[in-house]
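Example record

One chain of 127 residues, shown exactly as stored in the release files.
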Amino acid sequence: MKKKLDALYKAFESYIKGQPHFDILYSEKYGYVWISFDSGVMEMLDTPERMLERLCYDLINDVVFSPDNLMVHDDFILTEYEKTEVCRRLAEILKVIEGKEKDYYLGKIYGYFIKYQWPEWLDERRK
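Predicted structure tokens for this chain:
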């Protein structure tokens, strides 16, 4: 598990280092931890899927709130441009990962798009 997490972190390392709002740290005691400097929220990244999901949400937000994106959002619905741009950026980041792992990770993005557009807290508010 740690080997897969390390490989995923390494693939995203330059992206992570370029982010002013969060960082991912490694602790011998807890493993990888995502920390938001804006909110103070911390999240344990104990599986490759969890790390990828967290980083995909950050990547989605980068695209959605980019000054280059002319779409003004009042909801969580992603445009085709946004989905395409996230996939392009993710493919570029993951190109260093070999074989089946890369295909597996790229296949997860569509599920993350759905979760981003329909967050769990929205379900709770509708009950």
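Notes: The mean pLDDT is 87.
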